[in-house]
Amino acid sequence: MNLEQPPSMEGFLSFFIYVVPFLIFVLSFVTFAILAERKVMGTMQLRSGPNRTGGRFGLLQTVADVFKLLLKEDTIPKDADRTLFKWSPILAFVPAFMVLAVIPFTKHFQFADIGIGLLYYVAISSLSVIGIVTGGWASNNKYSLIGGMRAAAQMISYEIPLVLSIVGVIFLAGSLNLNTIVGAQQSVWFILYQPVGFIIFYIASVAELNRVPFDLPEAESELVAGYLVEYSGFRFAIFMLAEYVYMFAMAAMTTVLFLGGWHPIPYFEMIPGAIWFAIKFSLIFFSLMWIRFTFPRIRGDQLMTFAWKGLIPISIINIFLTAIIYEILS
Amino acid sequence: MNSFYNSYLLIITFFIIALSLPILSLSIGKWLRPPSKEGGRGVSYESGIEPFHDSRIQFSPQYYLFALLFVIFDIEVIFLFPWAVAYGKLGMFALIEMLIFTFMLCFGLIYAWKKKVLEWM
């Protein structure tokens, strides 16, 4: 892909040749991520997980699930706002996929190298809450509305610690460009300079992804499925797809910002950068699963208190401690 | 400069593809799935009882308070981003200015804390 050519219609159309295979890659990643999640969950709960469809390891289980959902009847509640009901899965999916445009996977494999990459990521990823609130509102169901409103309150509250914890990274790299940020971690990864920032970012990203222990918007045991109650068939599948693509983006972003992207650990330079990225990414992804199977759901009031009284003051203090130590050392 | 334009063209490409995947798959699914028959399917789920009243009810005003706080702190973040990028060139003066700015915001947060706005429900 040649970004230096003068912009033209042919060039624009040729980008589709690169992005469509990437979409297929992301879709197959999601397919196997769901399978892996179910297998890991099975192992942790002392059972075997999917093991019938597609051989002993259930390799085709998710594919079968997707085809089943594709063949399901499409029910829309009688009193629902039909336009919004149809558009909300799309509104949830579009930002989740769009953020992948700026993430540098290796030195040479990155789509859009824009100067404000980090700001773009933060801005676009926060739009995915709109799809969820729209879905909750349009369903005309009390559970959905409560789930949607909770999702809005939770996601905007955790947005702030998420973004504040990144400021320390920007500070050290002196740039918003993701390539520069990874380049600045050549010798020391930012997790060592910003351990508090990493922990806050990680907790806030779990909350942004609406996963256990922060899955109040879709808490099964009290809200049935929250904003997803009235969704069935392929619309439901697109909501799930959006959730996993967003999880892919978050894990990739944690790798880029704190774990040094494609940079190897010392003395292991012979292993290519793509493999290093994949290893770090998989570790983050696995720990996200691990948290899901280990923690119980926290209470609604604890959720909000934790963000506003815990994470936000700590992340503000973290920024100024970084600045003051930087000032003393320089 | 060309790479600048091409990067934003790529983002537009991502947008178009992200938009077309759900629309295409839902339209293709229309040919595959059986038509939805009526018979109670259109009724909203409410734990098995007939739904009553409109479900778009008034909800707690606390959501608005959190939304207002969010807007204030999000604007703070927008100011912190360029500050953090340019800090290496600005030095001590910028640090003190930003401390004063953040102190005023934190004062607001403490006020909200004492007014029990941050207590949920």
UniProtKB/TrEMBL annotation, chain B:
Does the keyword field hold Zinc-finger?
A: no
Keywords in UniProt for this one?
Cell membrane, Membrane, NAD, Quinone, Translocase, Transmembrane, Transmembrane helix, Transport
What kind of membrane protein is this, topologically?
Multi-pass membrane protein
Q: Where does it primarily localize?
A: membrane
MF terms in GO: NADH dehydrogenase (quinone) (non-electrogenic) activity; NADH dehydrogenase (ubiquinone) activity; quinone binding
Q: Where in the cell is it found?
A: Cell membrane; Membrane
Where are the membrane-spanning stretches?
Answer: 6-28, 63-84, 90-113
Query: What Gene Ontology cellular-component terms does the record carry?
Result: NADH dehydrogenase complex; plasma membrane
> Enzyme class, one word?
translocase
Q: Does the keyword Acyltransferase apply?
A: no
Per the UniProt entry, the Enzyme Commission number(s) are 7.1.1.-
Which reactions appear under catalytic activity for this entry? a quinone + NADH + 5 H(+)(in) = a quinol + NAD(+) + 4 H(+)(out)
Describe its function: NDH-1 shuttles electrons from NADH, via FMN and iron-sulfur (Fe-S) centers, to quinones in the respiratory chain. The immediate electron acceptor for the enzyme in this species is believed to be a menaquinone. Couples the redox reaction to proton translocation (for every two electrons transferred, four hydrogen ions are translocated across the cytoplasmic membrane), and thus conserves the redox energy in a proton gradient.
Subunit architecture? NDH-1 is composed of 14 different subunits. Subunits NuoA, H, J, K, L, M, N constitute the membrane sector of the complex.
Q: Name the family the entry cites.
A: Belongs to the complex I subunit 3 family.
User: What name does UniProt use for this protein?
Assistant: NADH-quinone oxidoreductase subunit A
